[in-house]
Design brief:
By secondary structure, the chain is α+β, with helices and mostly antiparallel strands. Helix content is 35%, strand content 20%. It has 12 helices and 21 strands. The radius of gyration is 27 Å and the shape is elongated. The two termini are 14 Å apart.
Length: 413
């Protein structure tokens, strides 16, 4: 028996080689109707599965369109979707997989660019097949198709049917699937905890910046009322660098992930040999990335947490003046309560390079309500505490995802 004929990780009570089967041996592949079903303006129990409704191994029912019963019947003419049938997206995006839940109040049918995989025989477990499609072998098959260079890459059914898996006996399949589905449920639980914590943080931020939630000083007294000030009155703009050191990291801002080394984000340093178009920042300085994105429609501000960095001059970089807390200023932007002002200042839609048109004069004229430094510090401490709790939960969630990915690679060939 060769190492290639069995999975790297197995339960001790099982032995013997895995057997090879093509996808066509294992499942019946049913294509969708190649036309768009007319949707209903009312919510019904008949739901259309489109590629956008299949993400990370799950069906996103909340975003599905409803149809009338007559439409459901017509678009199910090639076969009805039943519990434990597998959905595979052919393109846009390609290779996303989900499974029809065993108990649901909805009747599902295929939208365009989706396939139904129905297990054929008793030697393959449907949920094990679902997990196989998340394994390294199928991932290797999908990867070159995704990056084929064609305008629209897709999974071709004849080639898909020929693709082969190595699978163990049904008893082993069932034990593996029960173990991994139990892990899936644990991951879902931790994800819900993370989402709840994010909502709680968002709620606290809204209450803080609406001044519904106020802090007391060390004597238990109320702090003075917040004052409205221009951003330009409480920060000093930064531009250029005078003491550039080759060892200073070159950083860039990701709207979702914050500060990243240019090398890590783009797999190379795109600054080249000339650093004249970069600004030197020190810890606590802030930059506004005026890039338009889904996460930050009107741009995003991040505070530098490393000792020093060189950042692109295209960012609006600034340093808070004495009497102001940089973490408080950053939180103002992250809370989105300044988006209304930014929206009015942006002179047009995003440019060809994806950057928003907003002048320095307009940006630094943004009005910000600021409390005294004592209350600013307490607000910053509170937000940092919430971030730390979120980070712990996020790390726990990410560790489980990493564990699952490793197990999928080791338990499937």
């Amino acid at each position: 028996m060769s190492k290639e004929d069995v999975s790297e990780l197995r339960f001790p009570e099982f032995s013997g080689e895995f057997k090879e089967y093509s996808i066509d041996d294992l499942v019946k592949v049913v294509d969708c109707l190649h036309s768009t079903a007319p949707v209903s303006s009312e919510q019904t129990s008949y739901k259309m599965i489109r590629t956008g409704n299949v993400r990370n191994g799950n069906l996103i029912i909340s975003t599905m369109d409803s149809v009338e019963k007559e439409v459901y019947e017509k678009w199910s003419s090639k076969g009805y979707l039943e519990a434990k049938d597998i959905i595979l997206t052919r393109e846009a995006p390609m290779g996303e997989v989900a499974i029809i839940p065993q108990s649901s109040k909805y009747n599902f049918f295929l939208g365009q660019r989706c396939l139904q995989l129905k297990v054929r025989d008793t030697f393959i477990d449907s949920e094990y097949m679902y997990l196989l499609l998340h394994g390294k072998r199928f991932e290797k098959y999908i990867r070159p198709l995704k990056f084929s260079g064609s305008t629209v890459s897709n999974i071709r059914i004849p080639e898909l049917k020929k693709f082969k898996f190595l699978i163990p006996h049904l008893d082993e399949q069932v034990k593996v699937k029960k173990f991994l589905l139990k892990l899936n449920r644990l991951i879902e639980l931790e994800e819900k905890k993370l989402e709840l914590l994010e909502e709680q943080k968002k709620g606290y931020m809204q209450k803080i910046f609406s001044q519904e939630l106020r802090f007391k000083d060390e004597s238990g007294n109320d702090y003075p009322e917040w004052e409205k000030k221009k951003l330009g009155d409480i920060v000093s703009p930064l531009k250029g660098n005078n003491d550039v050191n080759i060892e200073i990291p070159i950083m860039t801002i990701s709207a979702k992930r914050g500060w990243l080394k240019q090398q890590d984000r783009f797999s190379q340093v795109i600054a080249g040999n000339s650093l004249k178009n970069y600004t030197l920042l020190r810890e606590g300085d802030l930059s506004y990335n005026k890039g338009n994105s889904k996460v930050a429609k009107y741009g995003i501000v991040y505070r530098l947490q490393t000792e020093t960095a060189l950042v692109p001059n295209v960012y609006k970089s600034f340093r808070v003046k004495e009497g102001y807390n940089s973490e408080f200023i950053e939180a103002n932007f992250h809370n989105k309560n300044l988006d209304r002002q930014l929206r009015k200042m942006i002179s047009s839609t995003a440019r060809m390079d994806g950057l928003l048109n907003i002048s320095d004069n307009d940006f630094y004229s943004i009005q910000i309500y600021t409390p005294t430094i004592g209350e600013q510090n307490k607000i910053a401490d509170t937000i940092n505490g919430l971030k730390k709790i979120l980070k712990v939960q996020s790390n726990k969630y990410e560790a489980l995802l990493k564990l699952k990915k490793g197990l999928l690679r080791k338990m499937f060939i």
